[in-house]
Amino acid sequence: MFIEIPKEIITNTDNRSVVLTPELVVAIPDIDEAFKQVDKKFLDNPENYLSNIEDSVFTFHSSEGEDVACSLLYGPMSKPDELLVIFAPFSDTAPKSQSSDIYGFVTSNIKNGLFVKEKASPNSWSQSTKSAVIFELLEALGKGMPVLTIYSPISTGAFSTLERKSIKNGDFTPVARITLEAIAAAQDRLHGPKSETQIDKHNISGASLGSSNGIGAAEGLVRNGREVYTVTAQELILGPKNLRNLGKRFTTHGIVGAASEENYSRDYPIIQEPAIRRTIDKKGSELFGTYSRVVKAMKPVYMKGLTKPEAIVRSVEYLLDNNVNLLAAIAENDAMSYQTRDYLPEGVDVVNLRGEKGQKLGHIVDEHVALSALVVALNVMRGKG
Description:
Elements: E1 8-11, E2 18-19, H1 22-27, H2 31-43, H3 46-56, E3 57-61, E4 67-73, E5 82-87, H4 99-107, H5 114-120, H6 126-140, E6 147-150, H7 161-168, H8 175-190, E7 201-207, H9 209-223, E8 227-234, H10 243-250, E9 270-271, H11 275-281, H12 288-297, H13 300-305, H14 309-321, E10 325-331, H15 340-343, E11 349-355, H16 369-380
Parallel strand pairs: 1-11, 5-6, 5-7, 7-8, 8-10, 10-11
Antiparallel strand pairs: 2-9, 3-4, 4-6
């Protein structure tokens, strides 16, 4: 399917809504209606919806040692032989609370104290709800397929010594072995390992660290004879030359450039942040649990790998040579990824993510769920399947 990728997507940094520009309407004419269907799936029965997300989570034992946490969402409209694999950003883990805890937390009219919020761990549901929105959106657009999420950070103990060395040098292709094992687990759950129906068509998506994981995994899958239709890389980090520079960009110097100056017609409609995220985010994130997960996610193996852009560029070039549709979505003011455009070879579609007039949009764009889901849909919709 031919889809003209918009040059930019505009989001409001305050409420995380997306401006429905004419370019987006041309690319996916029914996108606003599709998001309404996404909301309806959650609002019809929020308690059951959250329970289904909880039930989707599983772990498998890596052939090199430690367990890897994943989730698998699928339904009757899902294509049996095609799969979307999502790699989460740095610290987007599996939920750290039960669905009953988070449901009670968001529906209670009582002011929740610190202990209640820590127990509910709303921030730990971040990636799971993003994956659910992407799953529902693709289904609403007639492109339904199972969505396999590999949570971050993948334990470095799940890799061999040689694999860890490769990643430290910027070569993320060892992630392909983890991915193949995760796909095998999905195959087992969906059809059985010996079924005539085999998952043999793949789409890959990732954000931040997940982008590097996804690109490396995609190259490894293609080299293993697997068909990869699309790779979506949001906030792909290319540019930091050492750990000190990377840490500086991630913490104290996270924003670059000037605020957005372009305006747009106030007649344009907006796509609100999905209902599931408005519901969970309205009471804020837990403090200690969130901080702890961020600290644990800063693993030296991955951080060192992100300072070696040349290896990732080689993987990108390999994917382009093998006719993979590759889309990079980069926030206009993100210090982590603002240099990425300079490294990307010709053939990669790049969409600029920017705030409304007077706003700056940085790395936190990964948490803009409507926008992130839209970016993935734009790429997956033009896949071969």
